[in-house]
Design a protein that fits this description.
This protein is an alpha+beta fold and 114 residues long. The chain has 3 helices and 4 strands, in the order ββααββα. The strands form 2 sheets. Strands 1-2 form a two-stranded antiparallel sheet. A two-stranded antiparallel ribbon has the order 3-4.
Length: 114
Amino acid sequence: MKVAVGKSVYDLSHLDINHEELSALAGKINNKINRLSLQLRDLDEKSLLLTTALILQKELDEGSSNNKPQEVSTEEGKFNEEDIYNAMTENMENISNYIDQIISKISYHRSDVK
């Protein structure tokens, strides 16, 4: 499979990625390179490719550091994402049970009215 990125065409048949996915990825890279080339008109293609790779790596690094488990401090102590998830799940189950009780009471009263 060949893809056009920047001003060049690359043979990427050695990659084990389906055609549609590879085309989509190459298109994203190509768009980023084209935007950079408009901003940095004096750079040659190799420098544009390296600059794009560095920017993408920085974005990946920033994204992975943002995905670290968060910890929240409250008056009751520190809680991580799992603690918060478990508490939310328990609260949702309690709310669901409460709603079921209300529905049962409404259904019971409706049957008395008939």
